[in-house]
From TrEMBL:
This is 2-oxoglutarate ferredoxin oxidoreductase, delta subunit. It comes from Anaerolinea thermolimosa. SUPFAM superfamilies: 4Fe-4S ferredoxins. Residues 5-34, 42-71 form the 4Fe-4S ferredoxin-type domain. InterPro entries: 4Fe4S_Fe-S-bd, 4Fe4S_Fe_S_CS, Fe-S_Ferredoxin. Keywords: 4Fe-4S, Iron, Iron-sulfur, Metal-binding. GO terms for molecular function: 4 iron, 4 sulfur cluster binding; metal ion binding. It holds the Pfam family Fer4_9.
């Protein structure tokens, strides 16, 4: 079954260390070049499609700034066109 993931990064805690960016096996995280947090950091952000919700980014984040959500996509068993 395909899995779709989504990450939420708390700008309150993210210090832009890039550990999550380097650890992401899907390469869908990056540092924002357009936003700066109230503490003066460029926060990490989801850069595109392809997150599987593996959670590696949340595990390596020293500030616990990342929450990962996973959704399993179940395919319909109903016959198509029936």
């Amino acid at each position: 079954m395909p899995v779709q993931g989504r990450v939420v990064i708390s700008e309150l805690y993210c210090k832009g260390c890039e550990l999550c960016v380097g650890a992401c096996p899907q390469e869908v995280l990056r540092l924002s070049t357009e936003r700066i947090t109230s503490k003066g950091y460029h926060p990490a952000e989801l850069a595109g499609e392809g997150c599987t919700g593996c959670g590696i980014c949340a595990v390596v984040c020293p500030e616990a700034a990342i929450t990962v959500y996973r959704q399993v996509i179940r395919r319909s068993t109903a016959a198509v066109g029936a």
